[in-house]
Predict the structure.
Amino acid sequence: MALVVQKYGGSSVADAGKMKHVAKRVIRGKLAGNDMVVVVSAPGKTTDNLVEMAQLISPIPDEREMDMLLSTGEQQSIALLTMAIKGMGHKAISFTGQQMGIRTDASHTKARIVSIDGSKIKKALKEGKVVIAAGFQGTDAAADITTLGRGGSDTTAVALAAALKADVCEIYTDVTGVYTADPRLVSDARKIDRISYEEMLELASLGAGVLLNRSVEFASNHGVKIHVRSTFSEEEGTMVGPTMKDMEKVVVTGIAHKKNEAKLTLAKVPDKPGIAAGIFKPLADAGINVDMIIQNVSEQGTTDLSFTVMKSDLDKALAVMEPVKNKVRAKGLRYDDKVAKVSAVGIGMRSHAGVAAKMFDALAKAGINIQMISTSEIKVSCVVGLAQVDEAVKVVHKAFGLAKRKKK
Ligand code: ADP
Ligand code: ASP
Ligand code: MG
């Protein structure tokens, strides 16, 4: 008998029909002789709607109350799915984060799991029940409800799989696995059969929304193998696990993109020691993550300095930069919220030269201007205009030969 952790995303439990379909799939696992722990997300767009509602009440909602609100989405799903399974004649019980003993730190809306006391889950499993677990939520030391950040149900699933020493962690979603690019954008993207934690973590961090980056990090740290697959098909999905020797032969594994970026530029900043620290320390103090940074060649003792932040942090970043601009005697502060990032990822890059050049060439041939570049051992990222990013993903995907081979 195996212990299986499954996670069903919001689109998989969006309405009553889909909920019943999931119930049947869970029961099948149970009837096959497995202990089943099933993590669910809020139905469909519930979380988005709750965020919108909060913003109508308050432009910057109180974070403790935000968690109180957002956690209700998952509570709907666990109750409904449990009713469906019981209605089909099987034993099941729903648990909130607190009931499962999911303890987090106190950073509301982006909490991290500190420990899991799975005793209640184990007891229910012993009683032959299917456990239906609320994703995305936990409680802190003060017993306040916390949430794990958008997409956090993936992390709940991986963390439960680690804590319960599950045999498999299956992430069910609306696509059949991890693809070489977002299959909604690139119609000939190919499903990847096996991918390393390292590459998956980069892809997820660079915008491949199919898994939350934090869940991949957790899986890698605890050796949890993830199977990403579709709720609506029997097809084998993608296995995410440790790096295997043969994976290194593939130079580029996938292309990711992110549309929620914004660029700020401080114009004509004096080119002298301490200026960069003077600019980036206040941003860090305000909790704003800076992604790419570019400093232009110095001209007559001044330089233009540009950097990118998440679009949702733009207003905050502008507010932080206004006094900094005067302090460092910059001549101006500009921003552009119509930028996006396209990235190529692959562990094979470590041993192959020319990846960046190939990517730049593909973008140039398509007439796409590169505004910023950053590279690491296993990725190359370029900032381009938002209007061109879809095309950029397609041409880079093609340049690296990632497309499905056409049937003759
Ligand atoms: P869920 O609600 O199940 O958590 P998500 O919407 O969070 O689902 O994630 C699935 C979506 O991720 C897919 O519908 C797809 O559009 C998107 N996606 C982005 N990049 C990729 C990729 N490389 N491979 C597969 N899906 C991707
Ligand atoms: N419901 C939450 C969200 O929409 C968590 C999740 O779906 O993973 O972000
Ligand atoms: Mg998701």
Summary: The pocket of adenosine-5'-diphosphate (ligand 1) is lined by residues 9-12, 41, 151, 173-175, 178-179, 181-184, 208-210, 254 (CB under 6 Å).
